[in-house]
Amino acid sequence: MSTGLYVVLGVLVLAAIIVIVVYNGLVAGRQEVRNAWSQIDIQLKRRHDLIPNLVNSVKDAMQVEKSQLTAVISARNQAVAAKSPGESIQAENALTGALRQLFALVESYPQLRSQQNVSSLMEELETTENKISFARQHYNDAVQAQNIRVSSFPGVLLASSFGFSAETMYQVPEAERAAAETAPDVHLQ
Amino acid sequence: MAQASSALYSTDFQHAIARNKRNTLFLFVVLLAISVIIGYVLGWGYAIISLIWSLPADQVQQLTAGSVLADLFGSPRPEALAGAAITSGAGLIWGLITLSAGAEILASFSGARPADPNVPSERAFINVVEEMAIAAGVPAPRPMIVETPALNAFASGSSPSRAMITATSGILEACTREELQGVIGHEMGHVADYDVRYTTVVAAMAGVVVLLAHFLGDVARWSFGWGGYGYGPVRRRGRSDDGAGGIRMALTLVVLVLLVILLIVAPIASRLVQMAISRQREYLADASSAKLTRNPVGLIHALQRLERSDTNIARKDSPVSALCIAAPRGSFLSGLLSTHPPIPERIARLKNLGGLAGIPGEEPPAPLEAPAPHRGPWDSDGGSPHHGPWG
What we know:
The complex is a heterodimer. By secondary structure, chain A is mainly α. Helices cover 78% and strands 0% of the residues of chain A. In chain A, helix 2 (66-81) runs antiparallel to helix 3. The longest helix of chain A is centred in the first third of the chain and has 56 residues, at 3-58. Chain B is mainly α. Chain B contains 15 helices and 4 strands. Chain B has helices at residues 2-8, 13-54, 57-60, 65-72, 78-110, 120-136, 169-174, 177-192, 195-223, 233-238, 245-276, 278-293, 296-307, 334-337, 343-353, and strands at 113-114, 142-146, 153-156, 164-168. In chain B, a hairpin with a 7-residue loop joins strand 3 (153-156) and strand 4 (164-168). Chains A and B meet through helix 1, helix 3 and helix 5 of A and helix 6 of B.
């Protein structure tokens, strides 16, 4: 066999290795994006489960805030009932807003916060809220990493032929972004 | 914070992971080489001292310090090879044990116990660890507690799924939730980019080099008949004086001086290796914390708090100290051989990273009122406008 044949064989093997590495990277990236998305769902589910407990624990002491409690419960039920992803995102955002107002209200009931079960429920909901936003943040990080892989060399040469495309970022709606930048609207007697 | 967040995306875990795996291997080889050298010289020392005291007097009188030391670099003596084999075998086995159970070993070094979900402050700690694990996209490390009023935290373990994050009960009491997020984010950075593998192997291996050095010291004492044993080769053969005893004693001293130098140099060498790559990774973990929390202010305030507090989690030269978020202070070598960059420099870099250069340098964190385990994104009385991930 001639030297030229070895060179051609070497180049082919090298090309095959590059393709394998790039393909595996794309698959791992897509899997990461899916895992990140399901983590958001897990935390949303946890929030849905915690809310009725909290509302039950505080409803006697917070008779005056009955409307806020009802608002939280109905926002929660809407979020649970949401079918399409678009609906779900909207309902969850409404729930986030309602919960924030409820939390601010509970702050003004020191005797409630000193109760063991209420304070541990508050801690659980607080961490779940944080986990939801960190899970969304991680989802966006994963999407961004995958999109860079799909659109930069050498991934860009292979992505479309293997059926990989850019993923969609989780966008915070304009309304919620505005709400996050202003203090929650709290009505105190 | 919008511009700041986009600037923080650039912290790249993938490259850090690859580099850390390489560095761990490199470090493992270097520390293994150090223990091979220790074992070789130790075995040689034993052989040569035995020889000096068993040769007839006329041959001993022809020996000089130079010829004795040259023997170290001559053809290897079987005792030296045996010593090298023993220490390298032990180092290899210890290294493998470290890789599989490093976190547990270090937990027992530092007296850590699992965090208790029924204690409110520890429940919050467990939750913050889970939050940061979600932000980093890694399995949640086991949250551990060391009971001490000192303020510190460290991560350990050979991979994210085997990792532990250990906090002192003092830091849980002293820090707000926002600050705790910054601290745990820093530790999660170490976990996510495989710093923990490197630092855990370093800590456990460096511990063994120190142990070997102590062992070497014991052997040197024993051969010279100090320490009350009285039956080492020196003492044993020294009884029947044949006129060359003085020369024998002098040559033995030369060998022992060499062993003592090794005894001093080996731990310093292992510590130099340890610190060489660890300062840079502290900056990287600070950047990772800012990336994960999207809020450098929490970590800045926590570092300011640490700077003014007792951070001695364990003995100053404990292998755990290199793993901590802030180096335990007070060691006479601490300035020179510190594994951590100075806190003001870290704060300056964090501010730069977060686009917060306008924040005054000496601004102290808001003082804490009585223990306040529930200071979270919703609190209205915090000293900072950046409240949690929604801020």
